[in-house]
Amino acid sequence: MDIKIISVGKLKEKYLKQGIDEYMKRLKPYAKVKIEEVPDEHAPEHLSDAEKKR
């Protein structure tokens, strides 16, 4: 089984990275897991209707 996790932004906290590493180690025998981090996109405070729909 292949699992792909897409996360927004990057992790900065060390304890979260350690937790993710532990779960990745546990899942490895059962599934191929890949984590993809995409950059966070900041939205302006006031969105137009077209931007809200998108």
Summarize the structure in words:
It is a single chain. The chain has helices at residues 14-27, 49-53; strands at residues 2-8, 32-38. It is of the alpha+beta class and 54 residues long. The chain has one domain (2-39). The protein has a two-stranded parallel ribbon with strand order 1-2. Strand 1, helix 1 (14-27) and strand 2 (32-38) form a beta-alpha-beta unit. The two termini are 32 Å apart. The mean pLDDT is 88.
| Structural class designation | alpha+beta
Helix content: 25-40%
Give the biggest sheet: 2 strands, parallel
Strand content: 25-35%
Summary, kept brief:
35% of the residues lie in helices and 26% in strands. The chain is of the alpha+beta class and 54 residues long. The chain starts with a strand and ends with a helix.
Keywords, please?
alpha+beta, 54 residues, single chain, two-stranded parallel ribbon, 35% helix, elongated, 2 helices
Q: Could you give the topology of this structure?
A:
Blueprint: E1 2-8, H1 14-27, E2 32-38, H2 49-53
Parallel strand pairs: 1-2
